[in-house]
Amino acid sequence: MTAVTLRALLALPEWAQSVRVLAGTAGLGREVRDVRPSPGPAPDHPVTQGELVVVAGPMRPGDWRIDALLRRVADGGGAGVLLPVDDLLEGTRRLGDRLGVPVLVTAEAPLERLVAARLALAEPELDRAELLLATHEALTDRLRPPEEIVAVLSGLLRAPVALLDDQGGVLAGESGAAGLLRPGEPVPQRIELSDGVLLAHPALLPSASRPALWLAVRLHGTAAARAGVVPPALAVAAGAVQRWLLAHRLELERDARSRSALLGDLLRLDAEPDADLRRRAADAGWRLGGWHVGIRIGTPASVDNVARGADVARALRGEGIDAVVVEHGDGWTAWTTFAQEPVAGQVRDLAARLRAAHRELGRSVGAHMGVGRPHPRPEGLAATIAEAGDAARLAATRPETGHFLHVDQLGMAQLLLEWTRTDTFEPAARALLAPLRELPGDLVRTLAAYLDAESSLAETAAVLGVHRNTVAARVQRIERVLGVDLRRRDERLALHLACRTVILADEHG
Amino acid sequence: MRIDPADVPALERGVALLGSGGGGETVTGAMLLRARLAAGGEVTLTPAGDLPAGARVVPVGLVGATAVFDEKLAGGGEFRAAVAAIERWTGERADALMSIEVGGLNGLLPLVAAAELGLSYVDADLSGRGLPRLDQLSLAAVGRGLTPAALAESSGQVLVLTTGTAADVERTARAFITSGGGWAVLALAPIPAGELAGCAMPATTSAALALGSRALAVGDSPDRERLARATGGEVLALGRVIEVSRWQGPARHGRAGFGRGSVAVSDHATKSLLRLEMENEYLLALRDGRPVASTPDVLAVLDRRTGAPILCDAVRHGVEVAVLRLAAAPFWTHPARLPVLAPRAFGIDCDPVLS
């Protein structure tokens, strides 16, 4: 709240010439919260915390009641006394020093000092109100980008203002305060500096647990005295930043939706894209020709992909990777395009830089990354992105690789097999085979052996050590129970994978 | 109890302590008493109860500027003249004398007068301590009034006030003294010994003597505890006078007011500041701005080394002192009489702070 010290009052023009400090100099830094008149040296009210008692009526400098008044001020935590006398007894001076109660005297009308002091006490309130109004008028007429908000606020406060991101990094304005902010605490902050004070206000997005941005102002030297005045204005400006963020986000989301739709269309390509699709890709600035390397970045569902898209682009740019990034599902799909088929060294170099970008991104977003192989032409885009997606799914379960996988590191078959061991496949496989497991006759092993033996009853019987008629009967039962036709390749393949997964899991489990 | 010349220093010390800084310098009074005793005079402290109930006791004392009394000694006949005047006016013969005020000079002079006039001295007084004004005497406080009263001035004038309130007597006595020699002897109408219990303070002279001999017995530079134990009082401060300030008090009844002042004592042990407000007596003590003692309790400032009480008009900067509080006579702490001697009776807007 209002913090005016006795020293500050003594600097007032009405005080500077006419008020002297005769005792209790040590207490001049005391905060004055109230200035009240007293008709005589014995106030008709209890002295309150921070009260400066101004004795209005004429009095004798030697009056014992001055001593009693000093005691009451000391007991009540008052700020001091102002007396209409020109001198004090030595004993009274000593008492003021002893009790630490500042004793001010004036030969002129004490009530005029009182009026000036009351105005000074009210001044921060007025200052605050005026600054708040000015900020409101300057920032709320229309939507402004954060750079402009920072400039306007800096002008109003006559102090350096900065817009910081949630890592404390400077986005706009100037500030030596980047490292001082505590971004983890989404509340207005006041940080004392050696030469002043840093005030910061968060701009929160709805439903986000952490502030997206911070508005910070650094008050130096004498400006630090306004530290109590500035926060409301800062809050109004942070509100303007917040409005801009919300509006900007609408645009981002619209944009993200159209890009995601375009990507979907491209991924479904199985022939040359038509003219309309080419046109939309060109409008989006996407190159369909050349050799593409797909990148998939997956995130937990809690991450706000739209807002974080800029972080991904920045992380990739930081490693010199020119990539298209599209918000897609729980994460981002991205790709980079080479004009010619990349040589092995180029691919390795790209993978290394992607790994670095992934690490950088990991500072703010917990994400896993998969990278596909280079494929040419628009339809190759879908292929490399699909590979990247598979690799990313694997990466999610592989902390040992730092949640990063490049398809080149794996044979495709291995990749596919690995894929069957994911959390999504295995339960499905178990569900598929569950009816067999409830029946007698080791049907799962029979089915696996049958499929391994390329549907040969004789070989299956040899492997299992039973009669081929037994195998035939079991296969019929399997087809009946599962409702499948093992002559159909899709069903055969699915069941083969399911058997392998379940048997492998049981052996390892 | 018979007063022996050897008792005089103790009596002097006792009455000086009870003067509360006022009551006048006691040196001359003590000298006169010693001289009277040496010349064969006899003074016996007679308890009021030992007299027949009908015995006439005349309260006497010196009023006015006691400092002038030192310079302008008694002609010798003032007490006799005042007592004679009141005897003539009332038609009653004085059987005994008593003091109007045990504190200070008037704790001694009535003994001298009794020896001089060959009357008994009753061990009682009308103040129990030092008091500045006649209208504060116990007779006035219980509503008996002071008239008739006789005043004998040193240049020979005798004035008898036959009627009037206590305040009238006070005012007229002051005017008479101011126009005369600066002091006068007052004699009030005789009080039957049987009525003294209701309007006077008993056994105060013998108490002063006892207090004085205990105070003398502690010797030089007593510590806080010894001093308190010997006097039965409370030591408010033991330190150095860092400031004495004096000013003219507000005028009263159209006459210039008494001189006023304050004394600041810095306590050596606690470093606290004890401030004494004074008029003719020390009236109020504040420690670090908080009232800690007041009239009607007796406040005495003693020379730290000799233990001799220092009068209000003699206290000065730089002296090492002990400030002592002695409990008031029970007469004054009675709620009906407390306002007569409470600080507000002296124009000090503060509630009484009693031990």
The proportion of residues forming helix of chain B, as a percent range, comes to 25-40%
| Global structural class of chain B | alpha+beta
- Number of H- or I-type helical stretches of chain A: 17
What's the overall average pLDDT of chain A, rounded?
83
Number of strands of chain A: 18
Rg value of chain B:
19 Å
Number of strands of chain B: 16
CATH topology of the largest domain in chain B: CV3147-like fold
Domain tally of chain B:
2
Domain S-Me-THD-like C-terminal (chain B): 168-351
Domain S-Me-THD N-terminal (chain B): 7-162
Pfam families (chain B): S-Me-THD_C, S-Me-THD_N
Structure description:
The complex is a heterodimer of chains A (509) and B (355). By secondary structure, chain A is of the alpha+beta class. Chain A has 4 domains: 4-121, HprK N-terminal domain-like (Udp-n-acetylmuramoylalanyl-d-glutamate--2,6- Diaminopimelate Ligase, Chain: A, domain 1); 140-243, GAF domain (Beta-Lactamase, 2-Layer Sandwich), CATH 3.30.450; 269-411, 2-Layer Sandwich (Alpha-Beta Plaits), CATH 3.30.70; 425-508, Arc Repressor Mutant, subunit A (Orthogonal Bundle). Chain A has 17 helices and 18 strands. Chain A has helices at 6-10, 13-16, 64-76, 90-99, 110-139, 146-157, 230-267, 275-283, 305-318, 344-361, 377-396, 412-420, 425-437, 443-452, 457-464, 468-482, 489-508; strands at 4-5, 19-23, 31-32, 34-38, 51-55, 80-83, 103-106, 161-165, 170-173, 189-193, 196-203, 213-220, 291-298, 323-327, 331-338, 368-371, 375-376, 404-406. In chain A, strands 13, 14, 15, 16, 17 and 18 form a 6-stranded mixed sheet that branches. A 5-stranded mixed sheet of chain A has the order 2-7-6-5-4, sandwiched between helices. Chain A has a 5-stranded antiparallel sheet with strand order 9-8-12-11-10. In chain A, helix 13 crosses helix 17 (489-508), helix 14 crosses helix 16 and helix 14 packs across helix 17. The longest helix of chain A is centred in the middle third of the chain and has 38 residues, at 230-267. Chain A is elongated and about 130 Å long. Chain A starts with a strand and ends with a helix. Chain B is of the alpha+beta class and 355 residues long. Chain B folds into 2 domains: 5-204, CV3147-like domain (CV3147-like fold), CATH 3.40.1610; 220-346, CV3147-like (Beta Barrel), CATH 2.40.390. Helices cover 29% and strands 26% of the residues of chain B. Chain B has 12 helices and 16 strands. In chain B, strands 1, 2, 3, 4, 5, 6, 7, 8 and 9 form a 9-stranded mixed sheet that branches. In chain B, strands 14-13-12-11-10-16-15 form a 7-stranded antiparallel sheet. In chain B, helix 1 packs antiparallel against helix 2, helix 1 crosses helix 9 (204-217) and helix 2 (27-38) runs parallel beside helix 5 (109-117). Chain B is globular and about 60 Å long. The mean pLDDT of chain B is 93. The A-B interface holds A 42, 60, 62, 64-65, 67-72, 74, 89-91, 94-95, 98-99 and B 242-243, 245, 247, 262, 264, 266, 271-273, 275, 277, 284, 286, 288-291, 348-350. Chain B: InterPro entries: S-Me-THD-like_C, S-Me-THD_C_sf, S-Me-THD_N, S-Me-THD_N_sf. Chain B: Residues 7-162 form the S-Me-THD N-terminal domain. Chain B: Residues 168-351 form the S-Me-THD-like C-terminal domain.
